[in-house]
Predict the 3D structure of the following.
Amino acid sequence: MAKMWEGRSSGETNKMADSFNSSISFDSRMYKQDITGSIAHAKMLAKCGIIEDAEADKLVLGLNEILDDLNSGKLLFDEKAEDIHMFVEEVLTNRIGDTGKKLHTARSRNDQVALDLRMYLRDEIAVIGAKIESLIEVFEEKEKAYADTIMPGYTHLQRAQPISFGMQMGAYKSMLKRDADRLLDCYKRLNSSPIGCCALAGTSYQTDRAFEAELLGFDSVIMNTLDGVSDRDFCLELASDLSIIMMHLSRLSEETILWSSAEFGFITLDDAFTTGSSIMPQKKNSDMAELVRGKTGRVYGDMIALFTIMKSLPLAYNKDMQEDKEQIFDAVDSVKACLDIFVGMLSTMTVNEDVMRMAAAKGFINATDLADYLVNKGIPFRDAYKISGQIVAYCIASQKTLEELSLDVYKQFSPLFDQDVYDAIDLFNCLIRRRK
């Protein structure tokens, strides 16, 4: 394929250099956005009288045919092409003749790739947002279904106070809602059009950037053309938002792995989302959750790579910025896959309510409520705390729970204990009192 930039030089490069320079292998995924952007550009050129209406119609028709052929598989990407922009323009020119050469008037690949990437990520944000909403729905379902299912709440991975499994699910729902809000904020800053910035300093043609931006669904245009072609803040911000999503999924993965172990036994994962061992027939491994936990590091790596690529680039465009796509594409793909896995895995898991209740009963997680009972009887909290701790120590030595102690034993620690202590330390009552 001939180089579109032939002129100043012969356009002949070493084959190894050609391969090293090419981005078609990964930026081809933006073909829909590239063609859509080119269609809008052709319409703008005609509106402004830069090309004839008939030429614009010919360009639009040719571009739509290329889009259809790529969608159907009739047209395949040329691996020898330098990038998606050159590929589309070359195919277009081959099909409709010299009119195809007019498409690149008043734009550069610098603003074209910035446009494609913004449009592509804008679409992906919508997809990720929908997947987050699907997972939120699963959490809401579990939150309601297990609102009264008592389990130990933990701090320092030690049993702390009684909560419900529904409350635990609700915590992750809250995290994901914040994640969704962050994506919406990112979308607002991303949705500004760079087309018309050209290479870096705009164009001498009398174009209508606002018209082109409106055709493509942008809220505004980027006014400073240097910033327009050199900005990748939207990639950095999205990568950061995706990393936070993965951090939340990784925490959930860790708890899923713990809860499904024999040591906890709080949940049982469906066979469809577990694997076995090649040597130990009894094993049922939570590999999907472990992979999500592992892919979190991968997404973090994508984010750090993006920050490192951009950290010392002079204005405006530099070829280093070609490296942004593989990183942000990988982060997007990883997050989508992990969200899908969790929707399926949580929807099909079995919650072992009896095991959770037993763990709660053995953990003395109502000890704080025991102290609060004494406070309500007039004892200062620190004294009540000490008495409750002494009772817990007695229970451990006697291999009993707080509920199993007789009233006579309680009165050995304080005469203020009465029959109503059993209502105070009942695990379900402890749970209900904390609901606001």
